[in-house]
Amino acid sequence: MLSLSYIILFFYCLSILLIFFYGLAQFNLLLNYLKSKKQVDNSPQYNFEKGDPFPFVTIQLPLYNEKYVVERLLHTVAALEYPKHLLEIQVLDDSTDDSIPMTKNLIAEIAQTGLDIKHIFRSNRTGFKAGALKEGLAIAKGEFIVIFDADFVPQKNWLLQTMPYFKDPKIGVVQTRWGHLNRNYSTLTKIQAFALDAHFTLEQVGRNSQSHFINFNGTAGVWRKECILDAGNWESDTLTEDLDLSYRAQLKNWKFKYLEKVETPAELPAIISAARSQQFRWNKGGAENFSKNAKRVLKSDTISFKTKAHGILHLLNSSMFLALFVMAILSIPVLYIKHSLPEIHRLFDILMFFIITSLLFFISYWVTYKSIHGGGFKSFLSYTRLFFVFYTIAMGFSFHNTIAVLEGLWGKKSEFVRTPKLNIESLKEQWKQNIYLNKKISKNVIFEGLLMSYFVFGIYSSFYLHDFSILFLHLMLSIGFAYVFIQSIVAPK
Q1: What's the pLDDT at 415?
Q2: CA-CA distance, 285 to 40, in Å (whole number)?
Q3: In terms of CB atoms within 10 Å, which of 82, 182, 250, 423 comes out highest?
């Protein structure tokens, strides 16, 4: 029994230390982010107004059953400001529903304006999104490839803001910051926007400003076609083909340019089933990419030690949910071990590392929140409230995301499950009739209900043992799992 107690303590301490080191890396990115604000961007740029030639651009629009947003997407892309004779639009349609005739009619309507727009339909989804992009690339006329997912709404001058940076022949990708059309729709959309804002400011700028590896985010960016081909083209052996190709390209010494000031609005998943499928794909894909690319990063002789360290932690990003879940599960047994083994009482002070990590996140995310929403006391209060809601619900997703990470690390293959687009702005409450919504309740929801009860027992244990050192943690875990459990059951039917 004593040996079991020490095994539990070992994994409990290990998980906290892993989270702590990840927190230190995030804080380092914050310092990089702040440093970048003092840097002057002297990147070479094309000046189209002074006669620099416009390059030929192909815009790829990967679709799969997007009847609610396809019209908005096509009309938005068709309105982009750029010479028509140097623009090609590929609608890469893998749809299997009644959206296909609608898409064909829209394309025919837009083609009459003089735009070169093609409907490339596949009767199968071989390779999923990566397969569609690869097939489109084989016949693309453009020297540069723009990709927009179906829910994105780029500004009219988007191409004029991004294309100038390709004057540097070493630039392989230009990525823009995501905006959020439905940020304030619900608690769920607010916390997703909160997390994504941190990624698109703190992480992307923090890495890119110091020439560390970043990732193309799957959409709202431009690739140099030569870069895609040189890196080995799109591959579909992971669920995050964008992260995979990004690392393979940067290992080939291509440079990425991140534009924080260019915002590309998109729609966030507004119901939990959609958020669950997106989170699962992202986290499993991240783990798959760690298995695929970590050794390549470590063995590279062309990148610095610091870039390697940030690269490995970047690839391990989703695996932090595994460390968080292990820490959470073991925290209740640890409470009882602490009570039964008073002679090693000081060992339990390791929880301070988790508290310090949380404080590092709190400081880092405030800086990035302020950059988007502005500072001031009221803004700080709103931020503080949102941070704790985000932190609590992130804990509630830890089991779901841990399953995704384990599947990714074990190499279990699964289908690319698209995130249903709702077009909440136009459809208002009618979006609940969306035919793509997943009405089935995941089997993981049952375990999340049990975990909610488990951490309620943790709260009881604090009072039973008169030890309140991790009461707040168990309170947050109980609320987080309760939120995920209840929302998953009462989602729109």
Answers
A1: 79
A2: 35
A3: 250
CB 442 within 8 Å of CB 485: no
Please state, in angstroms and rounded to a whole number, the distance separating the CA atoms of residues 471 and 325: 16
Q: What is 437-457 written as a DSSP string?
A: S--SPPTHHHHHHHHHHHHHH
Question: CA 35: distance to chain centroid?
Answer: 24
pTM of the model: 0.94
CA trace torsion 110, 111, 115, 119 (10° rounding): 90
In this prediction, residue 476 carries a pLDDT of: 98
Catalytic residue positions? 94, 242
Per-residue model confidence as pLDDT tens digits over 442-469:
788 999 999 999 999 999 999 999 999 9
pLDDT score at 140: 98
Domains along the sequence of the chain with CATH: 2-33+318-490 (no CATH), 47-274 (3.90.550.10)
CA distances 87 to 116, 117, 146, 149, Å, are 7, 9, 10, 18
Residues in the chain: 493
Burial of 66 (0-12, 13-18, 19+ CB in 10 A): buried
Secondary structure letter of residue 152 according to DSSP: B
